[in-house]
Amino acid sequence: MKKIVYLIVFLNFIFFSVFAEKYPIRIVKGKKYYEYAVQKSEGLFAVGRKFEVSQAQLLEANPELAKQTGLKLGQIILVPVIEKAEENEDAQKYEYYVVPPKQTLYSLSRQKGVSIDELVELNPELKDGLKAGQTLKIPIKEVPTPTVAQPLTDTLPDKEKSTKMDRKVRKSLLDSVRMVFERTSPSVEKPVVEEQQRDTDVVVAQQPTLNVVLMLPFMVQTPDLEGISDKFIEFYKGVLIALDAAKKGGVSVKLAVFDNEKSPETLDSLLTNPQLKTANLIIGPAYSAQADKVLDFAKANGIYTVIPFTSHLEKHADNPYLIQFNPSQEELFTVISEQIVRKIGKNKVIIARFQDAEDDKVDMFVAMLEQTMMAHRKNYNEFFISKENVGVLQDLAARNGTLLVLASRNTKEIAGLLPDIEALNIPNLSLWGFEEWGNEWLSYLPNTYYYSLFNAKSDTETYNKTYHYFYGKRAVTSIPAYDMLGYDIMSYFTTTWKNNQSHIYPFSKPCGADYLQSNIVFSQSGNQKKWINLNYYLFHYNGKQMLIIEK
Question: What is the pLDDT of residue 347?
Answer without folding.
Answer: 87
